[in-house]
Specification:
The structure holds two protein chains of two kinds.
Chain A lengths: L15 E4 L6 E4 L18 E7 L22 H10 L4 E5 L12 H14 L4 E4 L6 H12 L6 E5 L4 H11 L2 E5 L4 H12 L7 E4 L9 H16 L11 E3 L1 H5 L2 H5 L1 H18 L3 E4 L2 H11 L4
Parallel strand pairs in A: 3-4, 3-10, 4-5, 5-6, 6-7, 7-8, 9-10
Antiparallel strand pairs in A: 1-2
Helix pairs in contact in A: 1-2, 2-3, 3-4, 6-9, 9-10
Chain B lengths: L1 E4 L7 H9 L2 H14 L3 E7 L7 H10 L6 E5 L2 H8 L7 E6 L2 H6 L1 H6 L3 E5 L10 H17 L7 E4 L9 H17 L4 E2 L15 H14 L4 E4 L4 H7 L4 H11 L11 H14 L12
Parallel strand pairs in B: 1-2, 1-8, 2-3, 3-4, 4-5, 5-6, 6-7
Helix pairs in contact in B: 1-2, 3-4, 7-8, 9-10, 9-11, 9-12, 11-12
The chains are: A alpha/beta, B alpha/beta.
Chain lengths: ~300, ~290
């Protein structure tokens, strides 16, 4: 008897979000199958891998080996981002670490100028992360949205507490948003509903919070999996946005990464592969070798 | 559905203060208000009552001074339970026993001794069974034990344990499935639920519509009674059969009909959306009425 694979068809579809303008535009999402189910349908836009950079030289407390591949470039945000593109990043995720009120507390204007310079200098689109400080991020991300008007950045995180002013700025200046909620599918859906009242759903990317191996990755995994199933199988429009898994900062600060370089790379890679399987459409990692390994794994398969 | 008025609860600050000060007025007002609103029983909830198991005696006394309604004595403390039961003038409800070892040992004999009705929940030593099978197994075991001690099914009110929709949406649907098969499992038993728990964790102003909708859904599945807020006038009106259009729309959703939301009034639309969420057709979020 001939074997027939139990192939499912789904009626829901992940929204397609375009990041960056003109020749550097990158599309994410758009699939109408569960994560990596290439045997059930097409995945028009394979998952994208981004490398994280900062808007200023990293503090001394950073795990130093993760910076080695960049050498002196880490002292200059433009050089750092260019190097990340050389290493094969599909997007550069610049974290505005200098604006942290608990750190250097740099003003919004200065950070926005850096973002503009980096955006003008690199050939891939930018993801711009604030520090997660709900008040400071409003100043910073609104300013970035203005200064980079029309550049179609992916900006975030917007939270339940501060989504309105940031989303208004992103709307006015043509950017996409990262909607972040603390590992809870009900809150994730609620924030998307609130945003979608005035912001186009196909310009939202979900950040459900990603934890590395040993630090709650199973929660991130099952949440992403459930979000995808709810969107693709049950056609819930408010969970159909693509997902971003930002692992870079989270893995770097684990004691496993600090203790040993090889172990650290494996730590980041294991978490990244797992969240890829769970349904992440964009994965942000820190170490260029992690990116290389991820791309190697996907090559020819997706 | 029989309504057991939930408002005399030791967690409420007004109730707690009145009990501490032995001030009967707030308690009697609450009892009267619930009686007037149409409650069938008054719940007297003193919680674990570890420190003051005699509080319940005072409460039962002052409540019975103003109403003849039967009481539901609600505590986990067997000493406090007995204090309450022995003062009741009308046949009371022991609320509650469960499949937990200490409860089986201490509570069931009290139900026999005071010849009262008894709520038996599906809880076991490890918590709430996660599925219909687990709930069935737990309740069959505890009811068998109760029957052996001489408590007939007719005196047993099974509590399937409701969990909040904002915390574990799947359990809300499973609870309905369990209620549906209850009469097949244990013919003649009654049932009750802590209705308001379904909306625990939901923003305060959105709780009533969840409670009302779930009450209608539970009743359709055969539920006999609910511990609920009789001061919610709309809930009581629905329960008296005065809102047939709302009940109908909830039933249509439960029956799997593809209800066209645009054909409904705004009020009916909210009830339809709520029923879909409680049934598990739509993922819950606090903004479920806004889409």
């Amino acid at each position: 008897m001939e074997y027939k694979a139990p192939v499912e068809t789904y009626t829901g579809k992940v929204a397609e979000v375009v990041i960056g303008k003109g020749s550097k535009a990158v599309k994410v999402g758009g699939e109408s199958v569960l994560p990596l189910h290439t045997f059930e349908g097409t995945i028009p836009n394979p998952p994208k891998i981004a490398l994280q950079t900062l808007d200023a030289a990293p503090p001394a407390s950073w795990t130093q080996w993760v910076l080695e591949p960049y050498g002196d470039a880490v002292k200059d945000p433009v050089a750092w981002a260019k190097k990340a593109v050389e290493y094969g990043a599909d997007l550069v995720a610049i974290t505005l670490d200098s604006t942290d009120p608990a750190g250097a507390n740099a003003p919004a204007d200065a950070a926005a100028v850096v973002v503009k310079k980096v955006n003008d200098a690199v050939s891939v689109p930018l993801i711009v992360y604030g520090t997660g400080d709900e008040k400071k991020d409003v100043e910073v991300l609104v300013k970035v949205a203005e200064v980079c008007s029309g550049e179609v950045l992916l900006l975030g995180p917007v939270l339940k507490e501060n989504y309105e002013p940031i989303a208004q700025a992103a709307l006015a200046h043509g950017h996409n948003l990262i909607a972040q909620t603390p590992l809870d599918i009900n809150l994730l859906k609620e924030l998307n509903i609130k945003l979608a009242k005035f912001f186009p759903p196909n310009r939202i990317v979900i950040d459900p919070l990603s934890s590395p191996l040993g630090y709650g990755m199973e929660y991130s995994f099952s949440l992403m999996e459930r979000t995808k199933q709810t969107g693709v199988i049950f056609k819930d429009a408010m969970t159909q946005m693509p997902i971003i898994a930002n692992l870079a900062l989270e893995t770097c600060k684990t004691k496993e990464a600090k203790a040993d370089k090889k172990q650290g790379i494996l730590w980041e890679l294991m978490a990244a592969v797992s969240l890829l399987l769970a349904g992440a459409n964009i994965i942000v990692v820190q170490y260029p070798d992690t990116l290389k390994a991820l791309k190697g794994l996907m090559a020819g398969k997706v | 559905m029989k309504i057991i008025g939930e408002n005399i609860h030791i967690i409420s600050k007004a109730v707690n203060d009145a009990v501490k000060e032995r001030n009967p007025k707030p308690i009697q007002e609450l009892a009267l208000a619930q009686a007037k609103a149409g409650a069938d029983y008054i719940d007297v909830n003193v919680g674990p009552a570890r420190k003051n198991p005699e509080n319940v005696s005072w409460l039962v006394d002052v409540i019975q001074q103003v109403t003849e309604l039967p009481l539901s004595i609600d505590t986990m403390n067997p000493g406090a339970m007995e204090n309450g039961l022995k003062l009741c003038k009308k046949r009371p409800l022991l609320n509650s026993a469960s499949g937990r070892t200490d409860s089986k040992v201490n509570m069931l004999p009290l139900a026999v001794k005071y010849k009262c009705d008894v709520v038996i929940s599906v809880l076991v030593d490890t918590g709430c069974p996660p599925d219909v099978e687990g709930r069935s197994e737990s309740i069959m075991n505890t009811v068998a034990l109760a029957n052996e001690q001489g408590i007939p099914n007719e005196d047993i009110w099974v509590d399937p344990i409701i969990l909040p929709v904002s915390g574990d949406q799947v359990q809300v649907g499973l609870c309905l499935e369990f209620v549906k098969i209850l009469q097949d499992l244990l013919p003649g038993v009654k049932g009750t639920v802590g209705l308001s728990n379904v909306s625990n964790g939901t923003p305060e102003h959105l709780r009533p519509i969840l409670n009302r909708t779930y009450m209608v859904m539970l009743e359709k599945c055969g539920m006999y009674s609910a511990i609920a807020d009789p001061l919610d006038q709309e809930l009581m009106a629905i329960n008296r059969g005065e809102r047939p259009h709302i009940v109908k729309i909830i039933h249509r959703v439960m029956d799997g009909e593809d209800v066209d939301l645009n054909s409904l009034t705004p009020e009916e639309r909210d009830y339809a959306k709520t029923a879909k969420v409680l049934k598990g057709d739509i993922l819950y979020s606090h903004a479920w009425l806004e889409v």
